[in-house]
Amino acid sequence: MTASSPADDPEAFARAFEAAFQQAYLRFHRRDGKRSQMSGASRAVLLHLAHTGPLTVGEAAKHLDRAQSVVSDIVTQLEAKDLLAREPDPDDRRRTLVWLTPAGFDALDRERQVLSTELVARAAATLSAEDRAALVGTLEALNQGARP
What pTM was computed for the model? Predict the structure, then answer.
């Protein structure tokens, strides 16, 4: 009995892909120092605001099921880092909304990154443009195939 080729058998492909993906993940995983990582609470506030749009601190606290004072402290810390800004509500000048700054959106994008784009770019420079396009296209097709 001959072993099936990953190209011929979805099960063999799955095993080969898992092994290759594991190596790629370990090789290209983003490794930041502790100081550059965002706390879970800060990340939650930024993510929530990115999904909902500008909110008052009270509304954000209610949505996040946290005390208003806790969310207010987080907002103040994020504001000091220029990741959030307070702005008057255009519909009700008595209310103050909090919203992500451009730096806040950038920080959130970095937080979502799993792989080091610098390491991937360095390795990708050794591939032809056709190979890079084929690799991305194949991964996108694989992801499409996983959709329900």
Answer: 0.66
